[in-house]
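Quick one, probably user error.
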């Protein structure tokens, strides 16, 4: 039985990937490693936590000795590395934790993988490492675009990307780097734009939009992202970078307006606020290289956002427990610390 270590599997994208892999590959042992910081939520895994092919490990990826011991004990075959501090606003106010987790933590995992003969290390990164694009609709990020990060968050991710590349070039560690556009979908933590908008509108609260709301993002449904990482894990050429985009460019204001319409809420609920420091104008990805492996997104934005809004309507207890902090007690009630 293949053993796959998924770091950050209690987060949004990593959590969806864990569920996807547990369901799709009953012959694989999926090991979910997460420190359970503020954004780590295990309640999303209630339906799989008793599956024979699922294991949860509470550990810090930057804890070198614990990680090395774990790798020697478990003898993983693959590593899919999601674990990261990822909220840009938090990186602006507290950059240090982003360096520790995203850079040092990645280096610890790379060392453990190198020492234990990992067959593939997939590092999940972000399009934000490329910096920003202008509003020319014919310009896109490709895998050859130079790295020009503009926030402490994206700088920490670019640094970890370069470490992954270095371990391939220096030690011949089999790696892939994936860089995705903005994700959305079920179990999205409520501090991010789409779930924040949904939860605030359902609570009849104003929705903050930075600046004039004209910053453009390419939106990727998290299920499409999971499919893409699965493909890269099994068929990606070692050492290669693969961009993952949804072909769904929208301004932030358009996204919020779409959600207002879906929930029959007035656009008077939108409140423009002072723009974020270093706010990149536009991200847009050309995923042609990945499409050459046989992947295409299944969700257009209109279908995906409608399903996402409905999911948040159907799972109001989940996001309310996130907002009020109840989710943080789940681990203590249902898992035994070793």
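Nope, works fine. Designed sequence:
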């Amino acid at each position: 039985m293949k053993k796959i270590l998924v770091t950050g599997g209690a987060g949004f994208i990593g959590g969806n990937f864990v569920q996807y892999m547990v369901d799709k590959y009953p012959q694989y042992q999926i090991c979910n490693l997460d420190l359970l910081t503020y954004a780590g939520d295990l309640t999303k895994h209630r339906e799989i936590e008793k599956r024979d092919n699922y294991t949860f490990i509470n550990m810090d990826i930057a804890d070198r000795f614990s990680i090395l011991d774990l790798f020697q004990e478990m003898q993983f075959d693959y590593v899919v590395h999601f674990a990261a501090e990822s909220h840009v606003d938090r990186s602006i106010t507290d950059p240090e934790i982003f360096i520790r987790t995203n850079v040092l933590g990645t280096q610890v995992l790379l060392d453990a993988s190198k020492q234990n003969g990992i067959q593939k290390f997939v590092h999940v990164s972000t399009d934000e490492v490329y910096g920003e694009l202008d509003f020319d609709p014919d310009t896109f990020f490709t895998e050859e675009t130079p790295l020009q990060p503009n926030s402490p968050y994206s700088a920490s991710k670019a640094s970890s990307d370069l470490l992954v590349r270095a371990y391939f070039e220096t030690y011949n560690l089999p790696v892939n780097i994936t860089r995705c556009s903005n994700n959305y979908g079920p179990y999205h933590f409520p501090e991010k734009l789409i779930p924040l908008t949904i939860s605030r509108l359902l609570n009849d609260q104003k929705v903050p939009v930075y600046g004039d709301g004209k910053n453009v993002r390419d939106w990727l449904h998290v299920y499409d992202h999971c499919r893409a990482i699965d493909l890269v894990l099994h068929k990606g050429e070692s050492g290669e970078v693969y961009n993952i985009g949804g072909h769904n460019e929208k301004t932030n204001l358009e996204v919020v307006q779409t959600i207002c319409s879906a929930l029959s809420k007035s656009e008077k609920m939108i409140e423009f606020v002072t723009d974020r420091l270093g706010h990149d104008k536009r991200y847009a990805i050309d995923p042609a290289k990945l499409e050459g492996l046989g992947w295409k997104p299944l969700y257009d934005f209109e279908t995906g956002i409608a399903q996402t809004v409905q999911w948040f309507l159907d799972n109001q207890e989940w996001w309310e427990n996130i907002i009020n902090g109840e989710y943080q007690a789940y681990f203590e009630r249902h898992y035994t610390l070793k």
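The two ends are 24 Å apart (CA to CA).
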